[in-house]
Write a structure and sequence with these properties.
alpha+beta, Muramoyl-pentapeptide Carboxypeptidase, domain 2, protease
Length: 209
């Protein structure tokens, strides 16, 4: 592992700039599906213990409500309750105007993805398209033809649909998948904002929607 980390620290900055700055950023979804990050470039299994024991600050935005916050929620091995409650509010059902406890493992994955890419100069908030959903909100999405499972983990506070600016679906989804915390859905869409990634803490599985 030491050799692997040494290699990553020596080469990742240049390699990431090359692959993220050119072919992997801003691609149309059709091309994005044809390309994958180089081996180990976005692999959370390459992280060492030092990464996981440092304080965790999660920066998120909510396009629906216009909110943005940077929250220190974990320090000295403990979840900070007031900060956790703030993140639960930020990941609330904006349409249903309801808040529920979010799975801390989900927050860990979101923070991990953000902190991982920040080590290589990509400092972007995690854009939360959907966090917790009430049953009514989930059903409304289904009726509108928007992908939403009948027994969605969003209903349990165990899922979020996200984007990270300047990283396409392949990169974000591949990184989230490498944390091995649960399910990862790749939703490819055309348009200026592209698609999104579904991340949850359920069974380990992947799909494309």
């Amino acid at each position: 592992m030491a050799t692997r980390r040494h290699f990553l620290h020596k080469t990742l900055g240049a390699a990431a700039a090359s692959f993220i700055g050119a072919p992997l950023v801003g691609l149309a979804p059709a091309r994005a599906q044809a390309l994958e990050p180089p081996p180990d470039i976005f692999d959370a299994q390459a992280l060492d213990l030092e990464f996981w024991i440092k304080p965790r600050t999660l920066t998120v935005t909510r396009p629906q409500s216009g909110e943005k916050a940077s929250v220190l929620y974990w320090k000295d091995g403990e979840l900070i309750d007031s900060a956790y409650q703030q993140l639960c509010h930020l990941l609330r059902d904006v349409n249903g105007k309801a808040t529920a406890p979010m799975d801390p493992k989900l927050l860990e994955t979101l923070w991990g993805a953000q902190a991982f890419v920040a080590r290589y100069g990509i400092e972007s908030p995690v854009e939360i398209l959907s966090g917790y959903r009430t049953p009514a909100s989930n059903q409304r999405l289904r009726e509108q033809g928007i992908p939403a499972a009948r027994q969605s983990l969003h209903l349990e506070g165990k899922a979020a649909d996200i984007r990270i600016a300047n990283l396409n679906e392949e990169v974000v989804g591949g990184l989230i998948k490498s944390f091995r915390q649960g399910g990862v859905g790749f939703y490819y869409r055309s348009g200026p904002r592209g698609g999104w990634i579904h991340a949850d803490t359920g069974l380990k599985r992947t799909w494309k929607g």
